[in-house]
Design a protein that fits this description.
Helices cover 27% and strands 21% of the residues. The protein has helices at residues 49-56, 88-94, 106-109, 116-127, 133-146, 163-174, 193-210, 221-227, 245-250, 255-261, and strands spanning 5-16, 23-34, 38-42, 64-74, 80-82, 99-102, 181-185, 213-218, 230-235, 238-244, 321-322. The radius of gyration is 21 Å and the shape is globular.
């Protein structure tokens, strides 16, 4: 992994709707993806993970609107591309060649009336018109081989493949033009545990072979700890913690990160109690004041209900950041009597 950035997101804001009733889905998102890195993005459903992916790739469907911020792609050599200002024809050329996405639910992403061959070669025909038909077919066979599928499956339709094979076809399609960045939106959610591990092992091999960068989105933080270099935790449309995968696992700083980690059993080491997280995520149209997590947080104290914490590095801990009043510089731990005041605002209805 290089320290050189390949994708930078600064102050990104996304709303659903444009009037006074607009829902603020993303607020002040700052993220950097480094070349050759796997950046995990975790959080419960409704936290804004997929919205972030679609905003970065400019695939937001109406009424989704990017209301602020910048997204830049950094080409090898230093050239910088402002993704949000690309004209439609340049954006079409940019997608798949520089940045691609593996959508959630491969059966819904693949066209059911076209063969695997047709869908793989269509990508090549659109972006590499200089390739002859035979060359496109050869490349399609090579792509299937990369993801561990026999070339004779090119003639198959999506419904003739297993769920794991369909997902691997989507990964092959995303890698067809050897992009620098691949965004994977919960690519293993509908698969069994054995198939999840097979696909993750294949992704690790492909990343080492092709040296692309990955944004891996999932609600399963245990997968990210195993697969990612760094992890960003999202809640209520904001980043609440960011650190190396090992640091998140050993010493989560945000109470929400700690709750996620204690919601699944450890496969190794001593047994630990599963505590989970009480309550439900807030509805984005009825967000609590202050820290969005405070109505569910057992460590909340007075400032949590009134002030939105800023994502800042804890003192003397470079490389990580947390948005929590417990770790705010100069704030200190709550005094006796302060803790246990989780705000006067009840959480919104579950989504």
């Amino acid at each position: 992994m290089s320290a050189e950035p390949v994708l930078t997101i600064s102050g990104l804001n996304v709303d659903y709707g444009t009037d006074k009733d607009a829902v603020h889905a993303l607020r002040d998102i700052d993220l950097t993806l480094h070349r050759g890195e796997v950046l995990g993005l975790a959080g419960e459903s409704g936290s804004g993970k997929s919205t972030l992916a679609y905003a970065v790739t400019r695939l937001l469907s109406p009424p989704g609107v990017i209301t602020g911020g910048e997204v830049h792609y950094h080409r090898p050599g230093g050239d910088r591309v402002d993704i949000l200002s690309l004209a439609p024809h340049r954006l079409r050329a940019f997608r798949w060649q520089e940045l691609s996405i593996v959508f959630q639910g491969a059966m819904n992403s693949l066209n059911p009336v076209h063969t695997v061959h047709s869908q793989l070669t269509d990508v090549l025909a659109a972006h590499r018109p200089e390739l002859r038909k035979r060359q496109r077919t050869d490349r399609a066979k090579e792509l299937l081989s990369l993801v561990g599928i026999s070339a004779d499956r090119l003639a198959a339709y999506p419904h003739q493949l297993s769920g794991g094979m369909r997902q691997r076809v989507m990964i092959a399609m995303a890698l067809a033009l050897e992009p620098e960045i691949v965004i994977m939106d919960e690519p293993t959610t509908a698969l069994d545990v054995v198939m999840q591990r097979q696909i993750l092992r294949r992704l690790v091999q492909l990343r080492e072979q092709l040296n692309f960068s990955v944004v891996f989105i999932t609600h399963d933080i245990s997968l990210l700890i195993e697969f990612s270099d760094r992890i960003a935790i999202m809640y209520g449309g904001r980043i609440v913690e960011e650190a190396g995968a090992a640091e998140i696992y050993r010493d989560p700083r945000h109470p929400y990160s700690d709750g996620l980690l204690h919601s699944f059993p450890a496969l190794h080491g001593p047994r630990r109690e599963l505590t989970g997280i009480p309550g439900s995520p807030p509805h984005l149209s009825a967000m609590p004041t202050g820290c969005a997590f405070h109505p569910r947080c057992g460590k909340a104290f007075v400032p949590c209900a009134a002030e939105i914490p800023v994502l800042t590095p804890p003192p003397a801990e470079p490389g990580r950041a947390v948005a929590c009043h417990l770790h705010a510089p100069g704030r200190g731990a709550p005094r006796p009597g302060q803790q246990g005041v989780p705000g006067q605002v009840a959480p919104g209805p579950a989504r």
